[in-house]
Amino acid sequence: MEEDKIQFYIWPAIIGIAFLLLSFFDWQYSFYTILRIVVTIVAIYYAYYLYETFKKTGFWFWLLVVIAILFNPIIPVHLYDKSIWSVIDVVVAIFFLALIFKFRSKK
Protein backbone atom coordinates (compact mmCIF):
# COMPACT_ATOMS: atom_id res chain seq x y z
CA MET A 1 0.00 0.00 0.00
CA GLU A 2 3.02 2.29 -0.07
CA GLU A 3 2.02 3.48 -3.56
CA ASP A 4 -1.21 4.96 -2.17
CA LYS A 5 0.62 7.62 -0.15
CA ILE A 6 0.01 11.20 -1.18
CA GLN A 7 2.94 12.97 -2.82
CA PHE A 8 4.49 16.17 -1.48
CA TYR A 9 4.54 18.80 -4.20
CA ILE A 10 5.99 22.27 -3.71
CA TRP A 11 3.98 23.98 -6.45
CA PRO A 12 0.78 24.42 -4.37
CA ALA A 13 2.80 26.36 -1.77
CA ILE A 14 4.51 28.41 -4.49
CA ILE A 15 1.14 29.31 -6.02
CA GLY A 16 -0.20 30.19 -2.56
CA ILE A 17 2.85 32.34 -1.81
CA ALA A 18 2.48 34.14 -5.15
CA PHE A 19 -1.18 34.93 -4.48
CA LEU A 20 -0.41 36.08 -0.94
CA LEU A 21 2.33 38.42 -2.14
CA LEU A 22 0.22 39.73 -5.02
CA SER A 23 -2.38 40.79 -2.46
CA PHE A 24 -0.25 43.85 -1.66
CA PHE A 25 -1.39 45.46 -4.90
CA ASP A 26 -4.79 47.08 -5.35
CA TRP A 27 -7.19 44.51 -6.77
CA GLN A 28 -10.91 44.13 -7.21
CA TYR A 29 -12.70 42.19 -4.49
CA SER A 30 -12.92 39.12 -6.75
CA PHE A 31 -9.12 38.69 -6.53
CA TYR A 32 -9.34 38.39 -2.75
CA THR A 33 -12.08 35.77 -3.10
CA ILE A 34 -9.81 33.79 -5.43
CA LEU A 35 -6.95 34.31 -2.95
CA ARG A 36 -9.11 32.83 -0.18
CA ILE A 37 -9.98 29.82 -2.35
CA VAL A 38 -6.35 29.20 -3.35
CA VAL A 39 -4.91 29.55 0.17
CA THR A 40 -7.66 27.37 1.65
CA ILE A 41 -7.04 24.63 -0.93
CA VAL A 42 -3.28 24.79 -0.35
CA ALA A 43 -3.71 24.59 3.44
CA ILE A 44 -6.12 21.65 3.16
CA TYR A 45 -3.80 19.83 0.73
CA TYR A 46 -0.80 20.10 3.08
CA ALA A 47 -2.87 19.28 6.19
CA TYR A 48 -4.12 16.16 4.41
CA TYR A 49 -0.57 15.31 3.33
CA LEU A 50 0.76 15.64 6.89
CA TYR A 51 -2.06 13.60 8.37
CA GLU A 52 -1.80 10.81 5.78
CA THR A 53 2.00 10.68 5.89
CA PHE A 54 2.65 10.92 9.61
CA LYS A 55 -0.71 9.72 10.99
CA LYS A 56 -0.64 12.37 13.69
CA THR A 57 -1.72 15.94 14.18
CA GLY A 58 0.98 18.27 15.40
CA PHE A 59 1.89 21.94 15.25
CA TRP A 60 2.17 22.10 11.44
CA PHE A 61 -1.14 20.30 10.91
CA TRP A 62 -3.11 22.50 13.31
CA LEU A 63 -1.59 25.70 11.96
CA LEU A 64 -2.71 24.63 8.47
CA VAL A 65 -6.22 24.01 9.83
CA VAL A 66 -6.25 27.52 11.32
CA ILE A 67 -5.08 28.97 7.98
CA ALA A 68 -7.81 27.06 6.13
CA ILE A 69 -10.46 28.38 8.55
CA LEU A 70 -9.12 31.94 8.41
CA PHE A 71 -9.02 32.06 4.61
CA ASN A 72 -12.10 29.94 3.85
CA PRO A 73 -14.36 31.60 1.26
CA ILE A 74 -17.61 29.98 2.45
CA ILE A 75 -17.79 31.65 5.86
CA PRO A 76 -15.24 34.45 5.43
CA VAL A 77 -13.50 36.06 8.36
CA HIS A 78 -13.76 39.83 7.93
CA LEU A 79 -11.03 41.80 9.67
CA TYR A 80 -12.00 45.04 7.85
CA ASP A 81 -8.46 46.40 7.90
CA LYS A 82 -6.11 45.69 5.04
CA SER A 83 -3.05 46.25 7.24
CA ILE A 84 -4.05 43.32 9.47
CA TRP A 85 -4.56 41.12 6.42
CA SER A 86 -1.19 42.27 5.04
CA VAL A 87 0.58 41.01 8.16
CA ILE A 88 -1.36 37.73 8.04
CA ASP A 89 -0.54 37.32 4.33
CA VAL A 90 3.20 37.74 4.97
CA VAL A 91 3.15 35.34 7.94
CA VAL A 92 1.24 32.69 5.94
CA ALA A 93 3.59 33.12 2.95
CA ILE A 94 6.61 32.59 5.24
CA PHE A 95 4.85 29.60 6.81
CA PHE A 96 4.26 28.03 3.37
CA LEU A 97 7.92 28.62 2.50
CA ALA A 98 9.03 27.00 5.77
CA LEU A 99 6.68 24.10 5.05
CA ILE A 100 8.41 23.50 1.70
CA PHE A 101 11.85 23.37 3.30
CA LYS A 102 10.75 21.22 6.22
CA PHE A 103 8.77 18.53 4.39
CA ARG A 104 10.07 18.28 0.83
CA SER A 105 11.79 14.98 0.05
CA LYS A 106 15.52 14.89 0.21
CA LYS A 107 16.44 13.08 -3.00
Q: If helices are DSSP runs of H or I spanning 4 or more residues, what is the number of helices?
A: 4
Taking the sheet with the most strands, its summary is: none
What is the 3D shape? globular
Which structural category do the helix and sheet elements fall into? mainly alpha
Short note summarizing the structure:
This protein has helices at 11-22, 29-54, 59-71, 82-103.
Would you write up a description of this structure?
This protein has 107 residues and is mainly alpha-helical. Helix content is 68%, strand content 0%. It has four helices and no strands. Helix 1 packs antiparallel against helix 4 (82-103) and helix 2 packs antiparallel against helix 3. It is globular, with a radius of gyration of 14 Å.
Topology of helices and strands:
Elements: H1 11-22, H2 29-54, H3 59-71, H4 82-103
List keywords for this structure.
mainly alpha; 68% helix; 107 residues
